[in-house]
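Entry 14. Ran structure prediction on the chain below.
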Amino acid sequence: MKRPTIADIAREAGVSKVAVSYALNDQPGVSEQTRAKIKAIAQEVGWRPSSAARALNGARARAVGLAVCRPPRTLSVEPFFMELISGIESELAPRSIALMLQTVSSHADEIELYRVWWGEGRVDGALLVDLHVSDARVPALAALDLPVVALGPPQSAGALPTVWSDDATSMRETVAYLAALGHRALARVAGLPKLAHTAVRDAAFEAACRAAGLPDPVVTHTDYSGEDGARATRRLLIAEQRPTAIIYDNDVMAVAGLSVAQELAIDVPHELSLVAWDDSPFTQAVRPQLTALTRDIAAYGACAARTLLAAVDKGAVTSSQVPAAQLVPRASTSPPRRG
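Output, structure tokens:
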């Protein structure tokens, strides 16, 4: 079935296409009776204005864009993104605003995608995720005059409003907890080093270890996947000087790390303590249950969506700090076994 057009409505109503245009755009030039008849026919046939027509008329698209520069499989295995999207949708859906979601392979592709979406009137604004330490998307999107809200550290967002949490405070709390348990050899299986939040966590981890009087920690960067997390854990655990505690940058890698420890017959938590960043059902489905840094990711997404909608409405918009992740001790951490 072809998409209904203004010509179809005009033919059904027995009026000109100009009259239909006036009626559907609430412009003068037709009687109220004719306007009501045309709108009823439009609703009956399922007519919707095209994005190009909306752009020409300056009308709202009633959609916001979210491009993710990661492999599509990331969205199927990374609980963070699904929780984030659920929070975004909790603000958009009640307002009948759509979320345009697309994965891209590079920042250049992402910038071009936003140019197309904005130029064709397909979105009213955009959410920018996975900020880089030096991020070419920030000045490019600012130059488009597209309403944008970034999720991540403000220092990497330029003039864009951001929604962010204090990862440094969460990292200091975790290191202090492990040091209080008696751990001296700490390691971290981190995410991509070019990501701004990874850099914040890297710096905070090393500074917290120094403040606690611990030896220089080991940091291994990965792509966040379970496979890469398992490889990194295996390298740490077969090393001559293996850590007694490992902090993971996401829950997927922490679960994979637990499997590697069990594969090598290393007792968790007595020989090795494990901590996952971002709590999820994964961390509580395994045995032992994983100590985790928990935060309300859905609320994080909802805050970002509200901030973006305010920007779209030309309201006063400022950056928002959401609560930092809180440490929840479970069975995967304990004092290290002596001897």
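The CA atoms of residues 127 and 149 lie 5 Å apart. Will compare against last week's run tomorrow.
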